Amino acid sequence: MSTPATVEVALGARSYAIHIGPGLLADGPRWREALRGRHALVVTNEVVAPLYLPRVLPQLEGLRHATLVLPDGEAHKTLASASRIFDALAALGATRDACIVALGGGVVGDLAGFAAACWMRGIDFVQMPTTLLAMVDSSVGGKTGVNLAAGKNLVGAFHQPRAVIADTDTLASLPAREYRAGLAEVVKYGAIGDAVFFAWLERSAAALAARDPAAVSAAIAASCRHKAAVVAQDEHEQGERALLNFGHTFGHALEAASGYRSLLHGEAVAIGMLAAARLAAALHRAPAGDAERLAALLSALGLPCAMPAIDPERLLALMRLDKKNLAGHLRLVLWRGIGAAEVVSDVAESTLLAFLGGGRS
Ligand code: NAD
Ligand code: GLY
User: Is any ligand 1 atom within 6 A of the Cβ of residue 147?
Assistant: First the structure.
């Protein structure tokens, strides 16, 4: 068994480690110290529970613990599910020193983290991400939340986990489409801030597409190092953290326009990153060749690149709802080329509309 990699998220007294490697869920001695109190509630879902709960539960011996198995899917990332977590904590007699263990993908992690932020005004939680997207993005950095009928992630809190345990063995059962969607977020780190990592991804695309364990672990560790560095600098997204939204303004609009059905988040981000890169090229802010390198990498990883046929006016209206916008001005994350993302607020809506109308690939 290979040695796990450890990445530190440096946040002073709230610093924590991300452990990445095979066999970690069953390796209690590595992570049990993160559970400081007497009570633990494992929150998971009906897909993940039969696969991975038997690896985790024996490690909790000696604690008063319970498990809450929620239905699967984004539709359950709601206040109603958070309420079920509160009820389970109450039934457990959970006190301030209790810990929630979030075992699952980003939906479980965001929801369980949000409940941890609220219970008794904030208790510990440990992220055990089981999707690639959750390992490289959602489990790290402390953004937690739930959806409302009015929109995604509208209610939430910044609440950092005590530890992240990314057991790469769990990726073996992940459906191919979900795995590829996670790769889009991996590409994002190279695209926004690390041209050397981007070039490594280009060279490793075949190995990553084939889920070669060494390549996958290296990609997760590099992604977590990038995210940890950004979060350590700008925990509450006052500046640099906004760059992590490269591709997301277009992507969120595409997801919303498709009713969150036809595109997975990572697929929408892939299309969105390419749109951002092509817009930057059209505005002469970045080399067109870099956008085409991005297109080639995304394709090699099996990700979609083509903008779906959606009315540009509708997309623009959805982009206006982006949380990054300030005082009615669109703020976009574009790039100056591979490894050099920037926030731009001087793109006229008419320019964007013309691009959306003519920029389909
Ligand atoms: P998800 O949690 O819905 O997981 C995708 C699917 O894979 C689900 O059906 C799940 O049950 C299943 N699954 C999970 N692990 C599995 C495994 N090992 N084997 C087989 N099936 C498995 O989706 P996701 O892509 O992990 O996360 C998306 C969520 O993350 C969204 O709600 C998004 O808003 C959120 N997110 C949050 C942040 C953040 O910073 N907090 C960042 C990005 C995304
Ligand atoms: N996923 C974007 C962030 O954590 O800021």
Answer: no
**Strand, coil or helix: what is 166?**
strand
Pocket test for ligand 1, best of 110, 137, 303 (most atoms within 8 A of CB): 110
At residue 152, what are phi and psi to the nearest 5 degrees?
Answer: -80, 140
DSSP string, 62-107: TSEEEEEEEPSSGGG-SHHHHHHHHHHHHHHT--TT-EEEEEESHH
Q: How far is the CA of 150 from the centre of ligand 1 (A)?
A: 21
Distance between CA atoms of 281 and 66, rounded to whole angstroms?
53
The full set of domain ranges for the chain reads 5-172, 176-358
Residues contacting residue 356 through CB under 8 Å, at least 6 positions apart: 307, 312, 315, 316
| CATH topology for the 176-358 domain | Dehydroquinate synthase-like, alpha domain (1.20.1090)
d(CA 127, CA 193): 25
- Smallest CA-to-CA distance from 270 within 153, 188, 175 is with 188
- Residue identified by tokens 């190279």 is 190
**228-267 confidence digits (pLDDT tens):** 999 999 999 999 999 999 999 999 999 988 887 899 999 9
Return mean pLDDT, the chain. 95
| Inter-residue contact 77 to 85 (CB < 8 Å) | no
CA separation (Å) from 104 to 146, 186, 188, 211, 257? 15, 19, 22, 19, 27
At residue 360, the pLDDT reads 46
Mutate to test the pocket of ligand 2, among 223, 227, 333 (most ligand atoms within 8 A of CB): 227
> Where on the phi/psi map is residue 330: left (φ > 0), alpha (ψ -120 to 50), or beta?
beta
Determine the CATH number of domain 5-172: 3.40.50.1970
pTM of the model: 0.96
